[in-house]
Amino acid sequence: MTQHTDVVVVGGGQAGLAAGYHLRRQGLDHVVLDADAAPGGSWQHMWDSLHLFSPADHSSLPGRLMPARPGETYPDAGHVVDYLTDYEKRYDLPVQHGSRVEAVRRDGDRLLVEADSGTWRARAVISATGTWSRPFLPAVPGRSVFTGRQLHTVNYRRPADFAGRRVIVVGGGNSGAQIASDLALNGQVEVTWVTQRPPRFLPDDIDGRALFDVATARRRALDAGRGDSGGVASLGDIVAVPPVRAARDAGLLTAKPMFSRLTADGVRWGDGSRTGADAIVWCTGFRPALSHLAPLQLRGVRGYIATEGTRAVDEPRLHLLGYGDWTGPASATLIGVGRPARDAARDITALCARNRQGNPA
Ligand code: FAD
């Protein structure tokens, strides 16, 4: 049986919850369909030692401040899961967990949302599926001949899983630096950290707070026609969170340039020398999880969808929220997703009002 609603939000992580909060404030009927069985989005799947790079009061969704934990400046992932679980309940958001959306299609003046739990006809859709379910692995020669274990950031849990092993960590971003530090500080893992270009650490006194300020200032400058101030990337790539600082200062975090290929039992470097390895951890990023939108045929350059703010340029009933700066400045952060979520809800409210005038059904 097909159900009817104003808006379907696809994904119930922080972006989907922020959308739900603002849709509720706008008084729009909506449902949030989330593939995960439990609240918390990707935070429930991250590695054991992961902590936020901003304090709690700079990691809040609209309406409710994330509480700080005594003695802990940077909350851990479990704290974020607790916060999102509470947020969902507190605002009584209509989240249906364990409901995966397979396809979104056009159906006359509505969008049809097909999930494994049922079908919805909606005036608008907000897609907030994140990137965690689409890990990116680069095409590196020899990847299929390596006989050791290969895993991505999404599969890494804890150093104890690699005790006594030789591990190569690939990636010069935050995940690469943090996982290499986690393994190196454990003392029982032989770690080699590999980056495509020399790692760029942000100054030690810069954390997520400053990054958010820079992203906001950039947006304001662009909006006011004052040109591009360079954004966060101009400062560096790696936030020197406490474990990264500790590993770096202990001389345990020295990066080697990328190897030229994988071999059966390790890697070969540009100069022909070899290093044996039992495992490779690919910390090589993510792509937006957009396969459910394929029937809309909107995908442009490199699989991204052209947006104006959060609205899809070629399908104004569709909004994309939380994937990265292309869906709003800092929208892939806890503190940054509130504003684009509010703008999306307002835009959809206006659309629904126009829609109802033309078709009150
Ligand atoms: P997700 O949390 O991934 O949620 C997406 C939800 O959509 C999931 O629940 C999933 O089940 C669901 N879903 C996916 N596909 C479907 C489908 N087809 N149908 C239905 N449901 C679906 N941000 C910060 O603010 N501070 C930090 O310190 C910080 N650290 C980070 C560290 C790491 C290692 C990573 C990867 C990111 C970090 N981020 C941080 C960035 C960002 O806050 C997170 O990536 C965040 O989880 C993104 O939220 P989201 O709601 O967009 O996506």
Bound molecules: flavin-adenine dinucleotide
Strand count: 17
N-to-C terminal Cα separation, in Å? 18 Å
Overall domain count: 2
Number of helices: 6
Main β-sheet: number of strands, strand sense, barrel status?
9 strands, mixed
Mean pLDDT across all residues, rounded? 93
- The percent range for strand residues is 15-25%
**Shape summary:** globular
Structural class: alpha/beta
Secondary-structure element string: EHEHEEEEEEHEHHEEEEEEEEH
State the share of residues found in helices, binned by percent: 10-25%
Identify the CATH architecture of the largest domain.
3-Layer(bba) Sandwich
How large is the radius of gyration?
22 Å
CATH topology of the largest domain: FAD/NAD(P)-binding domain
Give me the CATH superfamily of the largest domain: FAD/NAD(P)-binding domain
Describe the structure in brief.
By secondary structure, this protein is an alpha/beta fold. The protein has helices at residues 14-26, 77-90, 174-186, 208-223, 242-249, 338-358; strands spanning 2-10, 30-34, 95-97, 101-107, 110-115, 118-127, 149-152, 166-170, 190-195, 255-257, 261-263, 266-268, 274-276, 279-282, 307-308, 311-312, 315-320. The strands form three sheets. Strands 1, 2, 3, 4, 5, 6, 15, 16 and 17 form a nine-stranded mixed sheet that branches.
Structure in words:
By secondary structure, the chain is an alpha/beta fold. The protein has 2 domains: 205 residues, FAD/NAD(P)-binding domain (3-Layer(bba) Sandwich); 99 residues, FAD/NAD(P)-binding domain (3-Layer(bba) Sandwich). 24% of the residues lie in helices and 22% in strands. The protein is built from 6 helices and 17 strands. The strands form 3 sheets. Strands 1, 2, 3, 4, 5, 6, 15, 16 and 17 form a 9-stranded mixed beta sheet that branches. α1 packs across α6 and α3 crosses α5. The longest helix has 21 residues. The chain is globular and about 70 Å long. The two termini are 18 Å apart. The relative contact order is 0.18. The model has no long low-confidence stretch (mean pLDDT 93). The structure holds flavin-adenine dinucleotide (FAD). The site of flavin-adenine dinucleotide has 34 residues, from α1 and β2.
